[in-house]
């Protein structure tokens, strides 16, 4: 928002507006705007949030706080153990670290603001934080799929080309694949949010629990066909990632069926290396599918629909560390070793004192 001379100018305008449609009466109201030549943006949005019964806010706050602490603790333990244990500096665990960062990004984008909503009834959010929250949520959704696609490729090479695995998945290629996964996700979402530039918004009420691209663009005063087309084309990205993951695991399944009859170790290796990845992917897809299904049933109360809409940000980040620890024997043993070593060390110190 800049003036004609190029200097940034923030102008608070209270605009009395009226609009009419051929099929309806005129509507009048008052809105506060950031005014400029190129467009206008409301100073503060108001999220619809949850309909919290009187006296239930503190309870819901502590539930959200508990979930967030579980996310931070579980993912923090996983990433710290992988970083400090040199035996885990392998492609699969490096990619798990990237998934952990992705989970933390999604949970941190939504849960802290949700806690403030429950505790203090805070529903207002200014324009830039709203865009930042929406950007982080969308990046989480895109990055988790690109990273899982890279993991599927890595597992395909590990099972189907075991003798060439280390020559194919070198350290440089591993980090390049992870970097490409993040860059692709960030570029896709950056283009999506670039359509917000110079789009005047006629309203400030967001009918959701958190900010997202579609919810904000629903307030646009003018049609946004390019944003709509690009947003719908995002489904092709989901399909592309699904094809990569499905192709990798079909080839892995074929290799297991072909060689697993004579060598049972192939089946064991395939299960150990692929199980956690598959469970994480299926869990995320189920969480997103629940959102789609919930909107097909208008009879469901708004609070339940809103709760279901945030499951994909809450459930995978909270459960994924448990999946990594239970399925991966190396990671599980390393975590147990770390905690048992600390316990023994503390006992020795207490004896010496």
TrEMBL record:
SUPFAM superfamilies: Family A G protein-coupled receptor-like. Residues 74-324 form the G-protein coupled receptors family 1 profile domain. Keywords: Cell membrane, Disulfide bond, G-protein coupled receptor, Glycoprotein, Membrane, Olfaction, Receptor, Sensory transduction, Transducer, Transmembrane, Transmembrane helix. It comes from the Eukaryota. The chain crosses the membrane at residues 59-81, 93-119, 131-153, 174-195, 239-257, 278-295, 307-327. One of its GO terms (molecular function) is odorant binding. It is a multi-pass membrane protein. The keyword Transmembrane applies. It comes from Poecilia latipinna (sailfin molly). InterPro entries: GPCR1_Superfamily_Member, GPCR_Rhodpsn, GPCR_Rhodpsn_7TM, Olfact_rcpt. This is G-protein coupled receptors family 1 profile domain-containing protein. The keyword Disulfide bond applies. One of its GO terms (cellular component) is plasma membrane. It is found in: Cell membrane. Its main location: membrane.
